[in-house]
Amino acid sequence: MQTKFIPDMNWRNEIYETIETGRNSVISRFYDWAMLFFILISIIPLAFREQNVWLEWFDKVSVIVFIIDYLLRWLTADLRLNDRPKWVAFLTYPFTAFAIIDLLSILPSLIVVNKALKLFRITRLFKILRVFKFVRYSKNVQILFKVLRKERHILFTVFWIALFYIVITALIMFNVEESAMFDDFFDALYWATTTLTTVGYGDIYPATDMGRIISMLSAILGVAVIALPSGVITASYLEELREAKKEKEAEK
Description:
Elements: H1 10-21, H2 26-43, H3 53-75, H4 77-80, H5 86-92, H6 97-110, H7 127-131, H8 134-137, H9 139-150, H10 152-176, H11 185-196, H12 209-251
Helix pairs in contact: 1-3, 2-3, 3-6, 9-12, 10-11, 10-12
């Protein structure tokens, strides 16, 4: 009797279970801890201005590990994005949020780019979220993301109000204040942003009475604008906690 060859795809399921679902096994735990270790050592070179042999090796070894991790996740993309056709999953995976983060953490070490762009390596810290599976297993984080999705329209409205206020305040200050502090419009934007957020570094400040009056009004209104999203998130978060508590009591 002729035996039909059927390729064994269990190895891909094993890879997916190990690197993605975080099953409670020795291999999966070892993989997570190993990834955490390489993520942390990959950040070390960013703390030094002058690179040496050890720091270069830290970066090279960690990048090799990240490339392998990226390829393994791409190889199992159809298992992760199982709501899409197989070929669509493989094509769209590089455009998912975590895949973009993975790519940004790898590219600065592979190509010659501006030194300022090496800060993209800091995106490697976001990989820790996946290592610990925070979003998947933490109920508090799930509630927080649910709140952000629920109140996203209000939060976006507040964001645009703040942005509009910064631009208007900067325009007013740039035309009222004629001191050397405001050489160009970017200085005014920088001042308006730090004033709105009530930080006020003090490196740029108005010298005229009218400029100081505008600065005081901007600081007062800035407190109100910044407090709006905090109040919305807090109220919605408490509401979600109450609903979660009711569901828990109903199950009992």
